[in-house]
Amino acid sequence: TIVSSSASGLTFLVILTSTSRLMCYYNSKAQNRPNVGKFSVSDIDPDKCTHLIFAFSDIIENQLVPTTVNDVQQYFKFNALKQRNPLLKTLLAVGGEKFGTEKFKTMAGSQENRQLFIQSVIKLLRAFNFDGLDVDWRYPAEEDKQRFTELCKLETAFVDEGTSSNQERLILAASVSAEKSTIDASYEVEEIAMHLDFINVLTFDFHGPWENVTAHHSPLFQGSQDTGDAIYSNTASALEYWRDQGAPEEKLNMGLGAFGRAFSLSSNSSAVGAPASGPGEEGCYTGEDGFWASYETCLYLDGVQNHLISDQKVPYATTENQWVGFDDTTSISTKINYLKANKFGGAFVWSLDLDDFRGEFCNQGKCPFVSQLHNLLVPGKSITKICAFL
Ligand SMILES: *[C@@H]1O[C@H](CO)[C@@H](O)[C@H](O)[C@H]1NC(C)=O
Ligand SMILES: *[C@@H]1O[C@H](CO)[C@@H](O)[C@H](O)[C@H]1NC(C)=O
């Protein structure tokens, strides 16, 4: 990007390097975790990500509202992080995995409800100094396809508000399915891509201990054992499918999960595709069966060797009867190299609180997962050169 401006007889030519986006989710529920798992807004490093996303807000009577009374205090602290990094942008996410779809269906189902919603969105975002909204409707059903498109068209209200208030326009992003069958059924890709600034493709949780054989939850590429629709269940296929259906690659963000999905093995076999009897043990801080934060993965795999799944370019490890697929420094580099080679706009990570944010578990310093992404995607200072001409 080249920006030139002229002020008081001096012309400044500012050359900005093309930086990629790194959008990082903050899960507000992480402040309720025990001991060193507890993560709150004050644990966020404002310099690691280009965008921070506060997860999640709620919808009541078709209006956007904070999920808890306590969130309001956090909104202030969250947006105050911009004082420490003036380039940082913040978004408020609505919905999420456990949110269900009813409230979205109702809200997006009529012009009147959508109007009420968008007015409440603008009011809430501006009141707390957020820069945009991230829609986490997981997932619109086939019958909601038009509703989702109508919701994305609310971007025009952001344009009008930006113009009339003479402020930078609010950002509209959505986090969307990476499953081919859901993309086909639920999104008018070309249409929604015109209205959305960013599209976060949820390229993780393709597989998990809800299935009966081991598989990596976020492979980069197709595996040799994949058959049928499973050939689409990988990061590269999902991003390329969104692009080929009409979403510009610069709007697409690759999803990275700072966690592993663990299975309990039910036989001696520990290969990819080995029989599993259900989820692995729960993470002792995050407390969900078969879900290990990246720092919990370090804790449980101390001294255990990783195995690379050579076609899918991601690692797994086994310890006792546990099988876990996760991302390590090598697979993160491979994924980001792929992202850059294909000119996708950026990446997003779920979530900051799952990284080894205290640097106590992985022996790689503080926030190794997000720091590596930052180093690969947001190199150096964004202003590389300032030339002044008389
Ligand atoms: C596991 O392997 C051991 C030794 O290789 C064998 O004796 C045992 O029968 C095997 N168990 C199962 C469940 O296959
Ligand atoms: C897993 O489930 C599928 C379909 O439900 C079944 O065909 C397959 O045999 C099962 N595999 C194992 C290892 O239990």
Description:
The protein is α/β, with parallel strands linked by helices and 390 residues long. It has a single domain, classed as TIM Barrel (Alpha-Beta Barrel). The protein is 29% helix and 26% strand. The protein is built from eleven helices and 18 strands. The strands form three sheets. It has an eight-stranded parallel β-barrel, surrounded by six helices. Strands 11, 12, 13, 14, 15 and 16 form a six-stranded antiparallel beta sheet that branches. A hairpin with a 4-residue loop joins β14 and β15. The two termini are 22 Å apart. 45% of the residues are buried. The N terminus and C terminus are likely disordered. The structure holds 2-acetamido-2-deoxy-beta-D-glucopyranose (2 copies). One 2-acetamido-2-deoxy-beta-D-glucopyranose binds next to loops.
